[in-house]
Every structure is written in structure tokens, then in C-alpha cells.
Write a structure and sequence with these properties.
- By secondary structure, this protein is an alpha/beta fold.
- It folds into three domains: 3-181, Alpha-D-Glucose-1,6-Bisphosphate, subunit A, domain 3 (Alpha-D-Glucose-1,6-Bisphosphate, Chain A, domain 3, 3-Layer(aba) Sandwich), CATH 3.40.120.10; 185-409, Alpha-D-Glucose-1,6-Bisphosphate, subunit A, domain 3 (Alpha-D-Glucose-1,6-Bisphosphate, Chain A, domain 3, 3-Layer(aba) Sandwich); 411-544, 2-Layer Sandwich (TATA-Binding Protein), CATH 3.30.310.
- Helices cover 34% and strands 25% of the residues.
- Strands 2-6-5-3-4-9-8 form a seven-stranded mixed sheet, sandwiched between helices. A seven-stranded antiparallel sheet has the order 20-21-24-25-26-19-27.
- The protein starts with a strand and ends with a strand.
- The relative contact order is 0.11.
- The structure holds 1-O-phosphono-alpha-D-glucopyranose and zinc ion.
């Protein structure tokens, strides 16, 4: 038996954030850095030994090297079988599905999601557990503690495995299947949605689409599903070849970054009627109609109200959940349907228990994320298919569906202002001041509106009763307007302050105001309470979504 034990260099900065460990590529390239994190995960997830592991990533720079390192660590730690995506590619939703479908003990997802890639960009790694979802905080805390003191890691000296073709091979006794990245996932989608009906609409020429894969992982998935299986127009997928640096872009499906898609949709009468985009690892989505943007919080509400019309959800919806900063549009729908609506902290991991406990069917976040109980991650292409299926059933445009929803339930005007790369001390000071101030704001009037709740959001998981504190300062007004402040947990440079602002409007005559204009008063209040301009030194946010 070979000695695979190698001395480890402990690192002290491997605390996972909102969604795994994300750092600059150069940080991951430090000697033994990835090895330290992966071995700490193996020490924590003792069930990996003798079992199946799923492995893949979004194809960004360092993806291939990381896969070879993880395979050798897995082999030395006694993993029995690894399924790895061809060319190292697997979207985040596909990993979640594969873990569940093949009863794997867990999976590694290599991605920094929507953060830019390339040698100067970001890299990331996340471990998902046997239900296909994020590891709970107790698990990631143990990994972090282990990583600070690890003395050795286990790794074989095997040669690299070619990943560019589907095949079965071995590293010692560990079996490795290099699998088709797309087929299992595409089958799942076909099972949930009415493909023949959508296909018919494409063939009739009534429906045309443009999907922007943003040079990231969803390209091969989108081509298989939209172009092949659904017979969409043959230019339906743009930027469909995954690139290590996302062609220098920022693979985040929003109005600021999905510019190729916006140009296509605003190209006049010949423009496609439906537009969508997904992010680096395929878990986010943006939905567009011609000259029309669907706010992700509205998307969740509209999905909830209409899910029963689609094959995968015809039995109805158990309950729904949204993260704290997500607008309360879905709350109105849940209330009228008589189902529970849970409010969780930011990050998909908080939905896991609610899904496993069968309390909810759908869930979503304002940050262009939505999903259901079909997997334990948010799912970009799933959301796109949901909307396509809805168009096929309702025979209405994206704009018509959204407007009639507002008419029925009222409209939640919503925006998020991000102040990026602020000095971390200043950002923490800003949050601390807000925290101190928030208690005394309750009961006060601002711009004539009484504040009914002002606190730092704390969440008690209804299933395991775990408590998660300090999840964002929320200020709720009597007229249902709301301001939320929190610091990002996914950035890799300084701190990012996110300010979320929403206003509820029931009168349809007031449903046509430009969003920033509709929210102008609240934006002023939000800026003043936090003194963001003075403290950050920035006069305007870096990104508005
Ligand atoms: C951001 C989003 C959050 C999402 C996460 C992972 O986290 O705000 O909703 O779950 O990315 O995609 P944040 O940077 O705000 O911590
Ligand atoms: Zn993502």
C-alpha cells in the first residue's frame, strides 16, 4: 500500500460564505490551498468513503486542474466511485440532480457562480450533501475549523485522467465515469414540463426566443433542450460555448451584465418574443419579454400563482419560501391560496430543510434565483422552461402575464442598490450603526409613514430549530414599504453593501411608473438612514438591479 499522506499547510481564511468558498484564482493556486479545503471536507463527511461522489464545475479557469486534484484526493480517501462531467462541466442544478438520482454521498461544485473568471478572476468550491443541497452551517463550520489545523492530506500520485471524452477508467480501485453533462438533467426537465406543447408553439412560429448562456456552463444544456428537444429557432442560444474566462464578461444575468441579450430583444419588430439568461454555474435566471423585464421577486409570485397549470406541479403547491430581501409579492399569493410562506435568511441553504420536510414546493430569491422541490439548488433553465410552459398554456406574452398578475395581486415595486468593494471596516461600522439605530426607529414616522418593525432579522429554522442571527436590518412601514440592508457573503474584494427597497401599490393606474422613480422617496430615506454616501464615499451605487 502506497503512502499517500502529504504534509498540509493550514490556512486560516477558508470560511465558506453564502454559497461555498470563493476566492481569487491566485488564492486557490497557493500551494496546498485547495487540498487543505478538500481534505477538511473529507474529514467532515465521513460517508464519502466507500461511496459515490459527483464532481464538476462551470468550466472557469482552474476548473480542470481542480478536478484532477480532487480526483486524486478522493482516491486516497477511499471514495468508491466518482461521476464527473465531460470536460469537467456540470451545472450546479445538474450536480444536485445527479446526487439525488444516483444516491451519491455528496458532490463538489467548482464555481464562483456569477463572479468573473480567468487567471485574475474568481474561483470557488462548494460541497453538497446527499440530499443534493448545500451543506448546513454546522458542517461548513467544522470544515473551517479543520482547515485551520490540518496537518496532512491524502492524495495519490496517479496521472491525470482525460476528461474530454465520455469513458470509464480507474484511479487505483476508484472507478471514474466521465459522463454526459446534459442528458440526466434534460430528462428531468422533460418530465416536469409540457415539452410537446412548447415545441408546437415554436414550430408554429408564434414563439421565438433568445437565451444568453453568457459563455458559461448552460450553453450545452440550452442547445440540447431549446434547440434540439424543443425545436426552438436555430439562433435561440447565444454565447453558448463555455469559456474559461467567460470571454472577459461578468456572467450575471441581470440588466447590467446581459447586454448581448438586451441588444437582441430590443432589435425592433424582428426581435424574439422571449428572452432569458443564466449565470456562470446555471442556477440563476433572468426572464424578459419584448421591452419588458420580469423582476425575480415577481417571477416567484407568478410561478406560485400558476404552477398548478404545469404537469410537474399539477397536484398543487404545498407552501413557498423566499429570502428576507426578496419582495413580498409571493406573500400576497400565498395568503390568497391559503398556503404557508416562509421568510428565510439569504442563501439557498435555508430552503433545504423546508423542502426535505415537504413544507414547501417552490422557493426563490430576489437575486435572480428560483427553484422547486425537484432538486436542492436554484435552477436557471428550470425557471426559463417554467415561463415557456406558462406562455404555451396561457397563450399570453410575458408582459401580459405579469400585468394581469399585478392587477389581481397588486404590484411590488422593487430595487436593489449595491455598493461594491467598500473597505470592510467601514462597511461593518455602517451596519453596526444601523443595528444600534434600528431599535429606536420602531414607532417613528418618516416621510409621513410610520415604521412598524425595525430590527436585525433572526431566523429560527422550523424543522431543526437552529437559530441564525444578524441576517439583515429590516425597516417595515405601515403602508407595507420596506427597506433591508445587509452585507454580501459572496464577494471576494472588500465588502459589498446591498440595500433592498420595495413599495406595494394596489392601484393599477399606478402600475406604469419607472421603478427608480416609483421608489425615489424610499431610496432617499434608505440612503439617509444608513449615511451610505458619506461612509462609503460613493455618490451612486455600483450596480442597480
Ligand atoms: C448572493 C445573493 C443570494 C444568493 C447568493 C448565491 O449572495 O444575494 O441571494 O443566494 O448570491 O447565488 P450575497 O452576495 O448577497 O451574500
Ligand atoms: Zn450561480
Amino acid at each position: 500500500m502506497k503512502n499517500n499522506s502529504k504534509p498540509a499547510k493550514p490556512y486560516f481564511d477558508q470560511k465558506p460564505g453564502t454559497s461555498g468558498l470563493r476566492k481569487k484564482v491566485t488564492v486557490f493556486q497557493q500551494p496546498g490551498y485547495l487540498h487543505n479545503f478538500v481534505q477538511s471536507t473529507f474529514n467532515t463527511a465521513s460517508n464519502l468513503k466507500g461511496n459515490l461522489l459527483i464532481l464538476g464545475g462551470d468550466g472557469r479557469f482552474y476548473n480542470s486542474q481542480a478536478i484532477q486534484i480532487i480526483l486524486k484526493i478522493a482516491a486516497a480517501n477511499g471514495v468508491k466511485h466518482v461521476m464527473v462531467g465531460e470536460n469537467g462541466l456540470l451545472s450546479t442544478p445538474a450536480v444536485s440532480h445527479l446526487i439525488r438520482k444516483y444516491n451519491a454521498a455528496g458532490g463538489f461544485i467548482l464555481s464562483a457562480s456569477h463572479n468573473p473568471g480567468g487567471p485574475e478572476g474568481d474561483f470557488g468550491i462548494k460541497f453538497n450533501i446527499s440530499n443534493g443541497g448545500h451543506a448546513p452551517t454546522s458542517f461548513t463550520d467544522t470544515v473551517f475549523e479543520t482547515s485551520k489545523t490540518l496537518s496532512h492530506f491524502q492524495m495519490t500520485d496517479d496521472a491525470d485522467i482525460p476528461l474530454d471524452k465520455q469513458q470509464t477508467c480507474y484511479m487505483g480501485e476508484m472507478k471514474i465515469d466521465v459522463i454526459d453533462s446534459v442528458q440526466d438533467y434534460a430528462e428531468l426537465m422533460e418530465h416536469l414540463f409540457d415539452f410537446p406543447r412548447i415545441k408546437q408553439l415554436f414550430k408554429s412560429g408564434v414563439l421565438s426566443m433568445c437565451f444568453d448562456a453568457m459563455h458559461a456552463v448552460t450553453g450545452p444544456y440550452a442547445k440540447e433542450i431549446f434547440e434540439k428537444r424543443l425545436s426552438a429557432n436555430n439562433d435561440a442560444v447565444i454565447n453558448g460555448i463555455p469559456k474559461e474566462d467567460f470571454a472577459g464578461g461578468h456572467p450575471d444575468p441581470n440588466l447590467a451584465h446581459a447586454t448581448d441579450l438586451l441588444n437582441k430583444l430590443n432589435a425592433g419588430p424582428a426581435a424574439p418574443v422571449f428572452g432569458a439568461a443564466s449565470d456562470g454555474d446555471g442556477d440563476r435566471n433572468m426572464i424578459l419579454g419584448q421591452n419588458f423585464f420580469v423582476n425575480p421577486s415577481d417571477s416567484l409570485a407568478i410561478m406560485t400563482a400558476n404552477a398548478h397549470l404545469l404537469p410537474g406541479y399539477k397536484m398543487g403547491i404545498r407552501g413557498v419560501a423566499r429570502s428576507l430581501p426578496t419582495s413580498r409579492a409571493v406573500d400576497k399569493v400565498a395568503e390568497s391560496m391559503g398556503i404557508e410562506c416562509y421568510e428565510t435568511p439569504t442563501g439557498w441553504k435555508f430552503f433545504g430543510n423546508l423542502l426535505d420536510d415537504k413544507r414547501i414546493t417552490l422557493c426563490g430569491e430576489e437575486s435572480f434565483g428560483s427553484g422547486s422541490d425537484h432538486i436542492r439548488e436554484k435552477d436557471g433553465l428550470w425557471a426559463v422552461l417554467f415561463w415557456l410552459n406558462l406562455i404555451a398554456v396561457k397563450k399570453q406574452s410575458i408582459e401580459e402575464i405579469t400585468r394581469s398578475h399585478w392587477q389581481h395581486f397588486g404590484r411590488h415595486y422593487y430595487t436593489r442598490h449595491d455598493y461594491e468593494a467598500i473597505d470592510s471596516d467601514i462597511a461593518n461600522e455602517l451596519m453596526q450603526k444601523l443595528r444600534e439605530k434600528s431599535d429606536s426607529l420602531t414607532g417613528k414616522k418618516l416621510s409621513g409613514q410610520k415604521i412598524i418593525i425595525s430590527d436585525d432579522f433572526s431566523y429560527t429554522d422550523p424543522v431543526d430549530k437552529s437559530i441564525t442571527k444578524n441576517q439583515g436590518i429590516r425597516i417595515i412601514f405601515e403602508n407595507e414599504s420596506r427597506i433591508v440592508y445587509r452585507l454580501s457573503g459572496t464577494g471576494t474584494e472588500g465588502a459589498t453593501l446591498r440595500i433592498y427597497i420595495e413599495k406595494y401599490e394596489t392601484n393599477p393606474e399606478h402600475h406604469n411608473i419607472e421603478t427608480q422613480t416609483a421608489l425615489a422617496d424610499l431610496i432617499t430615506i434608505a440612503n439617509e438612514i444608513s449615511a451610505v454616501k458619506t461612509l462609503s464615499g460613493k455618490q451612486v451605487p455600483d450596480v442597480i438591479t
